[in-house]
Each structure stands twice: as C-alpha cells, then as structure tokens.
Amino acid sequence: MIGTEAAGVWKYFEELSRIPRGSTNEAGVRAWVRKFAAEQGFEFKEDVAGNCLVVVPGRGAGKASTPVIIQSHMDMVCVKAEGSLHDFTRDPILLKVDTWEEKGKALEVLTADGTTLGADNGIGLTAAMAVAVDPEVTDCPPLELLFTMDEETGLTGARDLDPALLRSDLLLNLDTEELGDICVSCAGGRDMTAEWAIERIAPTAGEVPLRLTLTGLPGGHSGVEIHEQNGNSIQTLLEEVTRPHLMRRWENLAETLLLAEFSGGSARNVIPSAAEVVVWVPERLAVELETAFADPALATRTQANLRTGAGPVVFRSERCSPETTLRPIDPEQSYGILFAIMGVPHGVQAWSEVVPNLVETSNNVAVVQTTEQSVRLICSTRSSRDGAIAAFQDEVKAKLESSGAVVVCSEGYPGWPADPNNPLLGKAESVFAEVLGHPPNVMAVHAGLECGVFKGKRSTLQMISFGPDIQGAHTIHERIVIASIAPFYRCLTSLLKSLAV
C-alpha cells in the first residue's frame, strides 16, 4: 500500500497497474471492472464501443438524490525509455516511490520504472471505484461510474458512447491534473495525416547510409505543455541534418542528401522527444555530419534553447550497412518531404484573447513513420475558437499537397464551452475551498477532455473536471505527487456528500 490516506485509491491503482491498457487494448480493464461490480453486487453495463458503466445505489441521505456520473478513461499513453524492453501488451507497470525536486522543494512522488505511469487517467478511475465502496462515505447520491475506452488516440470511446448510458445531468470528470483546479472548458481537436507514396532508387557510387538520431528532449502532453517551448525532436533533428552551413559545399541539396528512413514520435497527443533519420550521402558529407553530431556544442546549444527539460539531449551518428538499409528515395521526393515536414508549424499558433495565459490554437507535429512504400506524418491541432482548426489545417494541407502528399483530416472532436450558470460549479467551489483551505482555481484547459463530446450527446449535462497533482503526463517522467491524493479524494467525497440531498 502506497499511502494510508485514501487507501482505496492506492489499492485499486496498484491493481490497475498490473493490467496492460494501452489505447484500444482495454479488455483487461473491462474484465477487472466487471469483476469489481459483480463482487460488490453492482449493476454492470457495456456498450458496443467497449465503454462500461457501474451503477452504484445511493447511501444514507443520498438514496433518493439525483444520480451523479463519475467519469474517467481506461486507457493510458504508452511511452518507454530508450532501450527499455517493456512490453505494454503484456508487462505490468512497475511502480516506485521517488523524490522529485521542484522549485527548491523535494516532493515525494509515485512514478514508474522507465515507462509512463498511467496516472492519466488511472487515478481518476480508481478514485471512482474507491468512493463507491468507501464505508466512511455514509451519505452519497446514486453513482454511475462511467469508464470510457481509447481516449488518448482521439476520444473514440466518448464519441462512440451509447447515449443511453448517460442518464444523469451531473457529471464529474476526474481527468484534470493539478490539485485545486476546477476545469470548466476545454479545446476541441482534429488530427491531420499526410502520406507520401515514394519511389526508391539505387544508391550511386560513393554514397553511404548514415543514421542520425536525437534523444532526450522533454516531450510532454501536447494539450498541457505545448507552450513550454521544449522542442520537437522531429523538426529539431531535421534542422540539424539540413542545416545550411553543413551543406555549404553543395549547390543542390536534393542530389546530395537522400532520405531512406524517418521515424519519430509515439502518439498524436505526445510532443515527440526522440527521432531518427537514415540518409544516403556522399562520403565527404557523411564525415561532416558525423563531426557535427559528435560536437558537444550541438547538444549544449539545443539544451539551452529548452524552457525546461529532463535531458540529457543526445545527438548520435552511425554508419549503416548498405546491404540492410532501405534504398534512398528519389532526389526530388527526398527534398520535398524533408522540407515539407520542416515547414509545418509546431507549437502555439494563437493565445486566447478572453482567458489570460490560455493557449487558443496549437499544432503538434507528432509522429513520422516510414515504410518501403511511403512516408507518413501525423499532426494534432487543437483550438477553443470556432473555425480555427479548419483554417489552420486547410493552409497546411495545401502546402503538404503541393509536395506530393495525400492529406486526410479526421472527424475531430468538439470543445467544451464554459457555462457561467453551471450550478454544479458553485457547489464545488464552496466545498473545495473548505477542504483545501483556499478558493479553487476555476480554469479552462487547452487539452481535449471528453466533456465536450458528452455535452453533444446530452445537452442538459452540468459538468466539472478536477483531479490531483499529476506531472509529466505522456512521458517517462509521469508522476503523482503522493500528498495530493488525500485532499483530492476529500474534495470528491465532500462534493458527493453535498449533493446527497
């Protein structure tokens, strides 16, 4: 047991951490939740999409109260350290208690050994289960524990949710990651995929294959940390590979540096922290690139440009075997693809004019992949302003198509507009102030939450989102500040008690 306060939350989180639950691989979690419901005598429902609902009777003064939906998602982002042998389809998450230094203060945290932790959103799921069976919560409204699938790759579970599972007008989303925050609005988002069908050619005499890699950038959640200026490994690596001073002796880059392979990033909503490119180059250029990538000043300069960072930033070069390396891509295509990807804007595109310090529109150059026949780029664009995503992606799409890419935009998901007349918010503000000893921070978030999708399915919903301190989500440094779990759980139980009328 990790902590004595909120013991049920820790108990269930330790159990959950033994179950593989990458996006679309939530069958084990559903089976675990179904078993939990059966053991407690609770009704269990599951829709065709794979979302599940546990119906918990009210207790004490709340028996006849309006039911409350407590909602979290079952999946987690799967990122692991370079060289890790962890298999997210099979292996449990290895938990460890550690100390994290922040602003000169040592925090006791729960983290994982070389992987993402899955506190996003596993801690919300296990808090919902804990409160459902907590004997000390004597007055509680009927609860509907709604656990959705595949949130991290596009809010698929929420989008495909059977509306019949939403029977109440009160919903508590437990997917906010700072204690004392009450989120009342979020951005919408849409993915864009560009794919180039490629023609490979035979390498010419004197060309050698060279693998160039970049690791150690901080990465992060593209909805939470996109403004931190922590770099993008895909574009940073390309900038160094194609840096003009490295090419000064050759007039025609397209005939000098030919792309063979390119990979970087792990998921649409994760800022890429590592990338790798294999290029065919003349011997003289190979030597110059090797010299540049071996220079410690390159990593130092890159590290200095980061606002924050776990590091260390590492650049590497390696000669490849010509016999086992993919053949180079046609010169014109190599040039077009490399510079098209470099030209896609990454990061904040606009700040909100309404909410101070809130990102309004952003784009994450998220993933690049190569096969024998194609190169694929995936971007994720977010905005809280109507029309901004389409306007941004239309412009980028036109430029990518001019380089020969076929570009497809996903269906996307809606934002969640703030409702100043939300009575649930007023009650939560009062309860949280009493529990925490200070007023909560009512805020909006640039990340996507499922609340916007739910609102489209049931327009009468009143919703708020809150949670404990979860830091470094979507990275191998993801951690829970242990001391934040007890007050978060008290906020949840006290709010439910206030609704048991």
Q: What is the topology?
A:
Blueprint: H1 7-16, H2 27-40, E1 43-46, E2 52-56, E3 68-73, E4 95-102, E5 105-112, H3 119-133, E6 143-148, H4 156-159, E7 170-173, E8 181-186, E9 188-197, E10 207-215, H5 233-241, E11 258-264, E12 275-282, H6 283-294, H7 296-304, E13 314-319, H8 331-342, E14 347-351, E15 359-370, E16 374-383, H9 388-402, E17 406-409, H10 423-436, E18 441-445, H11 451-457, E19 462-465, E20 470-471, E21 479-481, H12 485-498
Parallel strand pairs: 3-6, 3-7, 7-19, 8-18
Antiparallel strand pairs: 1-2, 2-6, 4-5, 5-21, 9-16, 9-17, 10-12, 10-13, 11-12, 14-15, 15-16, 20-21
Keywords:
501 residues; alpha+beta; Aminopeptidase; Alpha-Beta Plaits; 2 domains; 6-stranded mixed β-sheet; 12 helices; 21 strands
